[in-house]
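> run fold RNA polymerase, sigma-24 subunit, ECF subfamily
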Amino acid sequence: MKQKIEAEAERILLKNYESYYRLAYSYVKNEQDALDIVQESAYRVIKECRKLRQENYLSTWIYRIVINASIDYLRKQKTDRVSLDEVEIPQEDHYKEDDYLELLSSLEEKDRTIVILKYIEEWKLEEIAEILEMNVSTVKARLYRALKKLKIVLEPEAT
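> ok
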């Protein structure tokens, strides 16, 4: 049974490697650091997967490990940047990508994670709630609040 969980963990890690990398990269904005985070996360998964009680939570558990490893890395580095390389920025927009990076980095970690998972990774709110171990209504409220905060900053002041 334990070897079955290990084999399934390896299969999920390989299948979703690019997604884990994009998620880590969206936090650290550095290719090598994102690769290190994914590698560290994979190590943790293989090391700890036998302790997981229910195999059907394996996928969300792995994403949670990648998110936590990314956040831990940022805390250690005392940087708080997010990459929006995956998001298309309209050409007519007078904001630069750095402006968006600065805006996202101004959000609380959980709010930023929700925005990244929703709009960069294109996850459903239910999936985000499961990964972050939150109520769906809490995820919706945090997302709404984060988007409202971003919108206020992005809208030009009325003259």
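The chain has two domains: 1-81, 84-159.
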